[in-house]
Write a structure and sequence with these properties.
Homodimer. By secondary structure, this protein is α/β, with parallel strands linked by helices. The protein has 14 helices and 13 strands. It folds into two domains: 122 residues, Aspartate Aminotransferase, domain 1 (Alpha-Beta Complex); 261 residues, Aspartate Aminotransferase, domain 2.
């Protein structure tokens, strides 16, 4: 920082010069003229991901069906191999992770598999969850003959932004068979205390599952050491695997051998898969939770994207820069945007990879920023989400984004846009 009280662009440039990860930016395609701060919704294309996709397209062209066995790497075990590459990011053993399905499908299959009313009828969730989690859990409760309105125990927020850990713990009792929560809240960016919640769930005889969609690739995890039972995530946010990229899942090894609720042939033991027996023979690993044939073209970009994570020094190095970026962003909002509020926890241990900037006109402000080439997104009711992704966003980018927001407010530019009427935000 500068010696004076005011943060300057020179401060930002000095921080960029000292950033050991700054060279990663050159491996990404950043849309011309954009300050891209929306990587927590969709990460950018990297040259590494592009090359991996082109590689499998070439193999498809040259090998056709022989690609399942003769490609390099072969397609038949693509999901398991990428699971092993993802395992260090979540603190798991290689066989506990696989890429498969979509996030919502993975919630269906894991909750459907592990929910046992005899263990406890109630499932603990929270009222700030991403909606798809509730949709899937409610559907699975109906499949088990339970009324979701009675079986869901919803932990309510005290402030509309965050969920207090003590409120989660108070919700866990002998009636609870499962706790399923996000690792990071998608609006405010609050990072949950996964270890404490998991321990409380297990003490009550319940299972603990988590949706890591807003932490995978941005926050290190230790799922196996903590004893988390299962987890799901998408790979198209901080991991930059592309729109609609294949999702990932984790299952603790103590649960290996169970038959998934959504059993499918791609989860069959690889050694017997082509015996075409009509009796399911599950893999003795997380790979059992694969359903249909792996979509290679929607999976390959992740292979290249993980090269960047590994070259950065792993997720711990990315987390260090991410916290520095979000600290810087919060300082800038405090200093330069007194008409806005920070809705994200200020404690780094309670913060994910994005910052929620709150303003009553957040929706129209987000549109005005996009018109200026500052790509952010809006979430109800008043949140502008700003995500400085550590692999391709620098400190000067953050400074310029806040400066643009200041100008939008000073010039009332948001008044040129109509109030929200639906659609993608």
């Amino acid at each position: 920082m500068s010696d004076g009280d005011s943060i300057t662009i020179a401060d930002a440039r000095k921080m960029d010069t000292a950033d050991p990860l700054s060279d990663l930016r050159d491996r990404f395609y950043i849309p011309d003229g954009d300050l891209y701060m929306d990587g927590n919704s969709l990460g950018l294309l990297s040259k590494d991901a592009e090359a991996a996709l082109e590689h499998v397209v070439e193999e498809w062209r040259e090998l056709a069906i022989r690609g399942w066995t003769d490609a390099d790497p072969d397609w038949h075990t693509y999901g398991e191999r990428l699971g092993a590459r993802l395992a260090p990011l979540v603190g798991a053993n290689p066989e506990e992770v696989v890429v498969a399905n979509s996030t919502t499908v993975n919630i269906h299959t894991l909750v459907g598999t592990f929910y046992d009313p005899d263990r406890g009828e109630k499932i603990v969730v929270d009222d700030l969850d991403f909606p798809t989690d509730h949709y899937a859990i409610r559907a699975q409760l109906r499949q088990h003959g339970r009324d979701p309105d009675e079986a869901l125990r919803v932990v309510e927020s005290r402030d509309g932004r965050t969920i207090a850990t003590e409120d989660v713990l108070d919700a866990i009792d002998d009636d609870v068979g499962m706790v399923f929560l996000p690792s990071v809240l998608y609006r405010s960016g609050q990072l949950f205390d996964i270890e404490t919640i998991t321990e409380a769930a297990h003490d009550a005889g319940a299972l603990a599952g988590f949706d890591l969609a807003h932490s995978i690739g941005a926050v290190p995890h230790d799922l196996s050491d903590i004893g988390v039972d299962f987890a799901v995530w998408c790979n198209y946010k901080y991991l930059n695997a592309g729109p609609g990229a294949i999702a990932g899942l984790y299952v603790n090894e103590r649960h290996f051998g169970v038959t998934p609720a959504l059993a499918g042939w791609w989860g069959n033991d690889k050694e017997t898969q082509f015996d075409m027996a009509l009796t399911y023979d599950p893999e003795h690993s997380a790979a059992a939770f694969q359903t249909g044939t792996i979509p290679i073209l929607s999976t390959a970009p992740l292979d290249g994207a993980l090269d960047i994570v590994e070259d950065a020094g792993g997720v711990a190095a990315l987390r260090e820069k991410s916290l520095a970026l979000t600290d810087f962003l919060i300082d800038l909002v405090d200093e330069k945007l007194p008409d806005c509020e920070v809705g994200t926890p200020r404690d780094p241990a309670s913060r994910g990879g994005h910052v929620a900037v709150e303003h009553p006109e957040a929706y129209r402000i987000s549109l005005a920023l996009k018109e200026r080439g500052v790509v952010v997104d809006f979430r109800q009711p008043n949140v502008i989400r700003i995500a400085p992704i550590p692999s391709y966003v620098g400190f000067e980018d953050v400074f310029r984004a806040v400066s643009n927001l200041r100008e939008v407010l000073d010039e009332n530019e948001y008044e040129e846009f109509v109030k929200q009427s639906g659609g993608v935000t």
